[in-house]
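Section 3.1: Structural characterization of target chains.
Under the original work plan, the team committed to producing a structural model for every single-chain target entering the pipeline before any wet-lab resources were allocated. The record below documents one such target. The sequence was received from the expression subgroup and is listed exactly as submitted; it comprises 309 residues.
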Amino acid sequence: MALRIVFLLLMKNWIKAFRLRTLPLSFSTIITGSGCALLSGHWNTFIFILALTTTLFLQILSNLANDYGDFVKGTDNAQRVGPERALQSGSISQQQMFRAILLFIVFSLISGLSLIYIATQTYGWRMALFFLILGIASIAAALFYTIGKRAYGYSGLGDLFVFLFFGWVGVAGSHFLMTAELQFDIFLPASGIGLLSVAVLNMNNMRDHVNDKASGKNTLVVKMGFDAAKWYHIQLMVLAPSLFITWTSLRFESWFQFLFLLVSPLFIKNIFTVFSCKEPKQLDPELKRIAIGTFLLSLLFLTGQLLSL
């Protein structure tokens, strides 16, 4: 009985460290890219599942690495506004976290290599090599956001990397793996998801900007200031759905394709909440809401393409 209790406590600590609330946002990239492929008459359930699995491992790897990097640098301290992280709370040791990071690197490689092998069998070795490089770059991006002396998250480059990997790489990459086609207009919804992902990061950085500045974590919010970050956020939240509307107009088949607009009230409410925010801690619930909202948008987007066939 005692061993069972210890095991359950350990599992609870690790599940908390995985930060499951971030997973829907990362899944949105694959769902959106697959939705675009579906409208073109391409679908492969096996590729879809493998892409989601690889994204799952990469996101957990990123969360663990961020926990490790911020703790080592002293950014996760008593002054931090957000939820207490695993290393900060002492529920997981540095050695345990380091081992978990290595384990999820292995999981990401195995899943990613399986995805590349299945999806590129008819494309030739050059295309397989290209996606292998993208996969390694994705692992590196997950690790070096906060880990290392030149962690890019500490120099204001987090927004750019999130846009590229959550947007262009995730959406356009998953679309190509199903269709073997690189269509220019795929970068419209890819950029839309990328901008929404940046919006979540921006709220996170707005929430933590005081402690980040004191800890030397020079995020874009720290560089531009809290008030300017509000206007930046509004632009992200307005431009992202506009890009989806543009793609849908170009690829119009039926009005079902505009189902994703059902999340508009949630996004509009978020804009007003962020703009009127006086206390950074008020933004914490908004991170989850917009992450879930982006996930719902991607699901409605996929459903709209399916109903339009």
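Residues 45-72 form the longest helix (28 residues).
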